[in-house]
Design goal:
By secondary structure, this protein is mainly α. It has four helices and no strands.
Length: about 325
């Protein structure tokens, strides 16, 4: 078993040495070509890296320039938005003022109508009261006249009482007639005064009504024209700014991506150059130390001889084992 294990170990070592020896002899045989090829590969990699560095710097500079433009654009867009927002606030303030003016005019009109209705009620009550006073005075006068006429038709048996009562009735009739005249004269005067007050109240209503239509038109002009235009302009500015900024960010992202690609190209070229340099160093080591190759060849020959001897011993051991069986 030990012999077989040693034989297997020899076979593996012989295979490894043979492969290494073949590689070193191939390198030694192609040394000049290997060096030329790898130096060319290094030069190409360096040229690629240099070009990539130029492109990387160009993309980085462009990205920096675009970022500066974006900051300036954002500042300008913010200023525009603030200006338009202030304009909209002013319009909305005028809108609120216009609305309050309209409400104040409506309240004034309502107050004027209430006063007019009150004056109208007072007019109707005043005229009715004047007429009622005249009617009552007239009725009283008629009553006194009927009593006086009755007294004239049926004189009292007592001359003194008759005379006294006749005198009283005459005075009362005179007073009532005077009161009726005054009451009837009061009717047109009271009516005129109350109608004048009502006309003034009606005029106040008309005056309160007059500016409402114009105020309504002015309010509609503010709300439907100015305010809508200001809101549309602000929204349009926001949308436009968002679109411009998004497009510029996309350009920046494109430049950043291109810069990263060039950085990767630089890294790849540097890796290629390092790999080529390692090949040159390996080839130089083989070229500068042929004694190592010769030593390896000698070691391989000895291992092969030992392998042949060990194979023979193993064959003998196997034959002996077969005889024992």
């Amino acid at each position: 078993a030990d012999a077989r294990a040693h034989l297997a170990e020899l076979e593996q070592r012989i295979a490894d040495q043979a492969e290494e020896l073949e590689t070193r002899r191939d390198i030694a045989g192609r040394y000049d070509q290997i060096i030329a090829d790898q130096r060319q590969a290094i030069a190409t990699a360096q040229k690629t890296a240099a070009a990539a560095e130029i492109n990387r710097d160009a993309h980085a500079a462009k990205a920096t320039e675009l970022k500066g433009q974006l900051e300036q654009m954002k500042a300008e867009d913010d200023a525009t938005e603030l200006r338009l927002k202030a304009a909209l606030d002013a319009v909305e303030a005028r809108e609120a003022s216009s609305r309050e003016t309209g409400n104040r005019l409506v309240r004034r009109l309502e107050d004027s109508k209430r006063i007019r209705d009150k004056v109208k009620a007072e007019r109707d009550a005043g005229i009715a009261a004047a007429r009622q006073t005249a009617d009552a005075t007239r009725a009283q006068l008629e009553t006194l006249r009927r009593e006086y006429a009755e007294l004239q038709r049926n004189p009292s048996a007592n001359p003194a009482n008759y005379t006294v009562r006749t005198s009283e009735l005459s005075m009362q009739i005179s007073d009532a007639a005077d009161a009726l005249r005054k009451a009837e004269e009061d009717i047109p005067r009271v009516t005129a005064d109350l109608e004048h007050s009502l006309a003034a109240a009606e005029q106040a209503v008309e005056q309160a009504q007059a500016p409402i239509a114009e105020a309504k038109r002015a309010h509609q002009a503010v709300t439907t024209a100015e305010a809508d235009a200001a809101r549309d302009e602000l929204q349009s500015a926001k949308t436009s700014a968002a679109t411009r900024q998004r497009e510029l960010r996309e350009k920046i992202a494109t430049q950043d991506k291109a810069r990263r690609e060039q950085e990767q190209a630089i890294a790849n070229a540097q890796a290629d150059a390092a790999h080529a340099q390692s090949i040159i160093e390996q080839a130089t080591e083989v070229h500068d130390h042929p004694e190592i190759t010769e030593s390896l060849a000698g070691s391989l020959a000895r291992d092969k001889a030992e392998h042949t001897e060990t194979e023979r011993e193993v064959a003998q051991l196997e034959a002996a084992e077969d005889e024992v069986r």
